[in-house]
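> run fold Glycosyl hydrolase family 32
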Amino acid sequence: MPYLLPDVWTWDMWFVDDGHDYHVFYLKASRALGNPDRRHFHVSVGHAVSDDLRRWREVQDALIASDGPAFDDFTTWTGSIVRAPDGTWRLFYTGTSRAEGGLVQRVGTATSNDLYTWEKTSTDALCEADPTWYEKYDGVNWFDEAWRDPWIFAEPDNAGWHMLVTARANHGSPDSRGVVGHATSQDLETWTVRPPLSEPGAGFGQLEVPQVATIDGRHVLIFSCLHAELSDDRRAAGERGGVWAVLVDTLIGPYDVEKASRLTDESLYAGRLVQDRDGAWWLFAFCNTDSTGAFVGALSDPLPVGWSPDGRLHVTDGRFDHLA
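> ok
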């Protein structure tokens, strides 16, 4: 059964395996808000643990917004966790400030020795969108300044670290500027913003919660985009939103996201790929809408994924075969 909490909505999530338990961290907000659209600005980061990726036990929350003034004194949004060479856990997350009305997104970090108690490292952000390559908020081209959902992974030869983020290019048609933003670091503390790893013009207004993985020797990028954030051309062609995937040559790009195909429809969103200790790969997402279109706000059950004969990553139990 999906992980559905009676008193809160849960949505975007990320996972960690400490060798004993699986941990899931997720955005959460009280159902007492009434309108689920309000959840984004009344949010904390929740935490649950499991020994099988199916039965979850909620534990204490991980993060809340900082006392101001700080880059994250309004919201703490989606992120990812890695283990540093010194053995500490590093949580990279998205923050917005009240001074900017939550319109400008930046990335910050917190540390932990046990995955349960977290300490933010600074009231300042690690990095933000660089106007050399990325769109800054102007109140015209898009509804916010996108620099969020950091996905951190090590260079394949351990030469450094990479951060993928939801971002927008500073040129091209406004409805198709979504790109995978990129930053690099040698020490997980100082980050240099780089050019995007995908090109604008692929038909996406934004590519949310990007993640890369290597499944059975093949590299894949997944991201999420709803129907409303597809370009006019894609929507005119009858395309819909959901979780998307595209085969890539290397984990560090470039990524040809124009070739992406859907893993799920919009009933699920913000997909994450997770490998269990037996080597099997699973897709998680949050339960977005039910059959009536109402928001659900729960963590999905794990969905098995694999490669189709034509080289696409797909959910192998057949439930989304209609998307092929």
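Residues 232-236 form the longest helix (5 residues).
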